[in-house]
Amino acid sequence: ILLHISMYLFACCDSLALGCVVFSLAVSIKMNVLLFAPGLLLLLLQKNQSLFGTIQHLSICASIQLFLGWPFLTTYPISYIKKAFEFDRVFFYKWTVNWKFLPEEIFTSKPWTLILLACHLGVLGMLANKWWQSSISQLGGANARKLMRWTKYNNDKIELSPEYVIYTMFASNYVGIVFARTLHYQFYCWYFYSLPMLLWLTSFGPSSSGGKFSKVVLPLAANVLAVAGIEYAFNVFPATELSSAALQMSHAYLLLKVVSSEVPSIQIDKEKMT
């Protein structure tokens, strides 16, 4: 709930400071909220138009974490930090929903963990470059470069469109889901509500040829099949090789759409609103 309140504050209320407070509170309750953090970082850079302003808002998030964790950091700091992240945790193979088609020795191996981490960071890097190119094309090269200045260049405000804010946050979370070391059944609640938006706002690039079937019917059928594949996987217990394969094929389909699609309009189009 706190995560979605923070997204509402970012998208509809233009309240970065309060949004960062609520976002950090959400992280303190459930660490998986950190999957939204790369998207939030990009939004802060675009909204603040400076590194200094972005660092200020990130320090709000960090301050909340320090305040809430202070009793533990001052008594058992190493244990607290180690258990908070627990990178060396080995998950139970029998509960995994997304990698059941892999042999157990691969699923629990350290190299597999590193491969997933590398893929996660690599796709985030690809999306960051895509979002940067979209900033250049939509805002202009000069305005896009202002985002990386130390201080704000002028007093102009960028009004990010709510659609762009939510899409960016959802895409950031989704990439983390695709390359998660494991997904359990309850983890479906992390992202099921974002699937319709991600599926219907994305495509495999502009198509200048083809009729109604290839432009409308075929993509619609593929989207429905992707949703059905994910729904099927999370309703098979215990997970099987087939259900995990169906889940990952559906995940891969949507990931390819996100990577190849155009980014939604970054700024609010005031002319359409008048």
Give a summary of the structure in a few sentences.
The protein is mostly helical and 274 residues long. It is built from 13 helices and no strands.
Description:
By secondary structure, the protein is mostly helical. The chain has helices spanning 2-12, 16-29, 37-48, 51-73, 77-85, 104-107, 110-139, 141-145, 162-178, 195-200, 212-233, 241-260, 270-273. The longest helix has 30 residues, at 110-139.
Main sheet, how many strands, which sense, barrel?
none
Quaternary class: single chain
Order of helices and strands: HHHHHHHHHHHHH
Q: Which word captures the global form?
A: globular
* Uncertain stretches: none
Which range best describes the helical content: under 10%, 10-25%, 25-40%, 40-55%, 55-70% or over 70%? 55-70%
